[in-house]
Design goal:
Trefoil (Acidic Fibroblast Growth Factor, subunit A); four-stranded antiparallel sheet; 2 helices; 5% helix; 47% strand; globular; Ricin_B-like_lectins; Ricin B lectin domain-containing protein
Length: 146
């Protein structure tokens, strides 16, 4: 796997430039909550928008928010669909190049489990679901060092 080096990053969706954030309207996210991205999260909730990105010896990545000490892992939404969710233990992901400065993030070996930015017009947030890679902009992510 060839992805970013280990470090502190904002993780932003490429198509709408929103930032993944460990914040909810009522405070910090909790284990099991879906992962969300917000417009301008790095300005509104800066401590909840930074991630410690760690590349393991096997070349896979974990993503931890230092404010909450939680990791991005897997879960289910209210309809039972696979989604990303906050966990208290590390989960490792494949990070693969999708273009200059663009990355796709998926479950190890998961050909149908890529991070997908599910934005709905009118919302100020987007859910990060797990879906089959369709090679569209909603599957691409950027890492911005902080």
């Amino acid at each position: 796997m060839s992805g970013p080096t280990s470090g502190r990053y904002l993780i932003k969706s490429y198509n709408i430039d929103w930032t993944i954030c460990a914040h909810r309207k009522d405070g910090s996210s909790q284990p099991g909550d879906m992962i969300l991205a917000f417009k301008d999260a790095e300005h509104k909730f800066p401590e909840h928008s930074v991630f410690l990105v760690h590349k393991s010896d096997s070349g896979q990545y974990s993503f931890q928010n230092p404010e909450t000490s939680m990791y991005i892992g897997c879960g289910k939404d209210g309809k039972g669909n696979a989604t990303t969710a906050w966990t208290v233990t590390p989960q490792y992901w494949d990070v693969d190049p999708a273009g200059t400065g663009l990355w796709s993030i998926s479950m190890p070996g998961g050909s149908n489990a890529f991070w997908y930015n599910a934005f709905i017009d009118g919302n100020n947030w987007a859910q990060i679901l797990l879906r089959e890679n369709q090679n569209i902009l909603q599957y691409y992510w950027t890492f911005r060092a902080v």
